[in-house]
Amino acid sequence: MPTALLLENLHPQARTILEAAGFDVITRTGALDEPELVEALSGVQVLGIRSKTQVTAAALAAAPDLEVVGAFCIGTNQVDLHAAAERGIAVFNAPFSNTRSVVEIAIADIIALTRRLTVLDKEMHDGVWNKSATGAHEVRGRTLGIVGYGNIGTQLSVLAENLGMSVVFYDTAEKLALGNARRMETLDELLETADVVTLHVDGRSGNAGMFGAKQLARMRPGAIFLNLSRGFVVDYAALRDAVVSGHVAGAAVDVFPDEPKRKGDPFESELRGLPNVILSPHTGGSTEEAQEAIGRFVANKIRDHLATGSTNLSVNLPNLALDQRPEWHRLAYLHRNVPGVLAKINATLAEHGVNIEGQLLATRGELGYVVTDVGSAVAPAVVDALAAQPESLRLRLLS
Fold it and tell me: CB neighbours of 74 closer than 8 A, spacing ≥ 6?
């Protein structure tokens, strides 16, 4: 029975799906640091995490039984994807399941900050009645600037327009504008245009520190700033200065460079205590609906990969899926992408009298992945011969 280790309070749906598929499931509530993870992965085939556990090359090297990592979130920068691929470990995430939740909290933050609800709420709790329209605005008619026009940015664009906002966006990749949204040619052009600036960029290393004092200074005086993407993309000391000076009228931040690993751990930030600043503990995608959808989506990907060899939507291996008939036997072969591998596979099978019923090859950079269905049982000598090839990375006989 394969073993799955699920960390960081994953939704129970993940455990239910994996147990129904025959896994022995172990759950832990918090994240693990590297030494703890190395110890915990002994004899484990499946690892499930969220954003806090760092799956390093060293941890992967110490886990020879590990076959798949499920990141039950959008980002995968917490996993060494190259090291995982080199060991034939597939990594899956949930790129779409919590999109709506992030969009809704962005809309809520925009309205709350534009109406200065955080300031009014604090004053009321302090016993101060301050009925005034000063500094409060409707979002209708204001311009929203979206930096990163991907799955979240595009859906936010549509909802913001339905609220009567004008939308401009900036993305380094060519993206189709939805509705009446307008593409800005440069980030500076967006910053000089928008009343609200919201970041929805991915976790690639090139985005580190992309938003600092220079970019904040380019924003319109009195504009609102949101970061619900990655903590390391923003200089929060510079953001604090911009809020204190009044140049930025309010901010909402959901992600931080250094986040506590466990619920209840102390949290420190230079943004604490600032007026009209909303801080949330990386819960942009944390609704019950989103977590259930993520648990179901990633657990099903893990189950299908181990059962059929499907790598569809894997973030680090060549993507393919091949229909399988129950009477066939399947070989899933991950290898280095060099000439002649497919010919070697087929020659080896022919030498041992194995007839191919179906076969599919996909490549991704330095990697190649071949799934082969055969009509008869595969002898150990065939498996040994293929695994012994110098380009072989991982070979699995699935049935």
Answer: 93, 94, 95, 98, 285
For residue 278, give both structure tokens: 């909303």
Helix residue spans in 236-311 (DSSP H): 236-245, 288-308
What is the residue whose two structure tokens read 């329209």? 133
243 Cβ neighbours under 8 A, 6+ residues apart: 250, 251, 271, 274, 275, 276, 277
- Indicate if 161 and 215 belong to the same structural domain: yes
Out of 262, 279, 296, pick the residue that ends a domain.
279
Q: For residues 55 and 33, what is the distance between their CA atoms, to the nearest angstrom?
A: 9
Total structural domains within the chain = 3
Tell whether the model's pLDDT for residue 399 goes beyond 90: no
The radius of gyration of the chain from alpha carbons, rounded to an integer in Å, stands at 25
- Give me the CATH number covering residue 20: 3.40.50.720
pLDDT of residue 49: 97
Which pLDDT does position 295 carry in this prediction? 96
User: Distance between CA 44 and CA 38 in Å, rounded?
Assistant: 10
Local structure of 384: helix, strand or coil? helix
Q: Does residue 323 share a domain with residue 311?
A: no
157: region left, alpha or beta (phi > 0 left; psi from -120 to 50 alpha):
alpha
Give the Cα separation of 306 and 304 in Å (integer). 6
Instruction: Encode 364-379 in three state secondary structure.
Output: ECCEEEEEEEECCCCC
Round to whole Å and give the CA distance between 72 and 77: 12
Can you name the residues that pair with 364 across neighbouring β-strands? 367
Where in the sequence is the domain holding 145, given as residue range(s)? 99-279
Catalytic sites, residue numbers: 230, 259, 282
- Taking only the tens place, the pLDDT of each residue in 37-64 is 999 999 999 999 998 899 999 999 999 9
